[in-house]
Amino acid sequence: MAEGTDEERLTFFRIVSSLFALEEHSPQIPGYEGDRSTLASRLRDLACTDSLLDDLRAAIDSIFVVDGSRSGEELFLMKLSREDQYLDIESFSVERLDEALRRYDAVERHAERTSVGDDSAEDFVYDNAVLVFASDQVKLSVAYPNYSTNVRFFLDKVTAYLK
């Protein structure tokens, strides 16, 4: 596991998110604003940066992705089991937003229960989930490259920031 405290690792992703926001001409993460040079310097100064990048390099192509999305669906529930290196993607049409929110809530509640030792008989225990809107699967992978669906793209971007 990557070196550094949980807060340092969160700081890493907040800084990277602000760098992405700069490129997208979007608002940066509050408390993590700055130009590319300043943010890259902050990223270099984190004790966990090298070990996080090493861990991510080791994970390239090691995530098994099960994609249950169908054409025309724009809501994606991405569920990750870090232990099993398994990413499951469920998709929903916008008209099924309530159902998608219920599924997301159920996955999150289950993840909270299992994090405190309530093991279940399920094949995969999802410890992370996100419900996102994207017009298609391609835009999903561009919007969430750091969610294990496109680790190489994420690493290439972060490495370029650090040069």
Describe the structure.
With 163 residues, the chain is α+β, with helices and mostly antiparallel strands. It contains seven helices and four strands; from the N terminus they run αααβββαβααα. The protein has helices at 6-24, 36-45, 49-59, 97-115, 137-143, 145-149, 151-162; strands at 64-68, 75-81, 86-92, 128-133. It has a four-stranded mixed β-sheet with strand order 1-3-2-4. The longest helix is centred in the first third of the chain and has 19 residues, at 6-24. It is globular and about 45 Å long. The model has no long low-confidence stretch (mean pLDDT 81).
Task: Summarize this entry quickly.
With 163 residues, this protein is α+β, with helices and mostly antiparallel strands. Helices cover 51% and strands 15% of the residues.
Helix and strand element order: HHHEEEHEHHH
The N- and C-terminal alpha carbons lie at a distance of: 24 Å
Spatial order of the strands in the main sheet?
Answer: 1-3-2-4
Shape: globular
* Rg calc: 17 Å
